[in-house]
Design brief:
Structural class: alpha+beta
Number of strands: 6
Distance between the termini: 123 Å
Number of helices: 5
Radius of gyration: 40 Å
Amino acid sequence: MKKIGWSAMLLLVLVVSACGQKPATAPKTAEPPQTGVTAPETVNPVTGGGGAQEDPGDQGTGKQQEETPKAQTQKIKVYYTDDELMELKTVEKEIEYTEESQKYSEAFKALQTPDSGMISLWDKITLNSVRVSNGKITLDVTIPDEARLGAGGESLAIDALKQTFFQFDEVKELELTIDGEQQESMMGHVELEHPFKK
């Protein structure tokens, strides 16, 4: 009886071992059947195209180059004075800008950079911001003590600013604020209009 028990047990172990070896033949049946249809091309989730269609080094560069605005140049007249602050002198300068609003800050910079032998009435004044809306430009400035002029200099400075900005056809009004607020006068001598009109 013991022999039959051991024999049955041995037979059971052999059957279990044989079953455990069956998966070794699985790779043969895991291959898909050959039907003559090629697998679909893999799509790159980022570009939406296949790997062989685009050079990864070129991805997006064409679009970025189109979106980058080209620099434009424009010749403008800028107004300075002589060393005696007697009258305004006109100088032609070239400004470069990529956006329409940048054109006006570049014009202000030109107003601050005189040619030799001339004096800028705006060189020590800081431009805080430029806002453009429907033909109206608002310039906000800070005027330190060392930039303050007498009545004649202040009047020339305002004229230089107006003539520089009103040369742009699209500019119909010019608002000058000081540290974000409208003031009666820029330096205490000449009354400011809010806004100046062309």
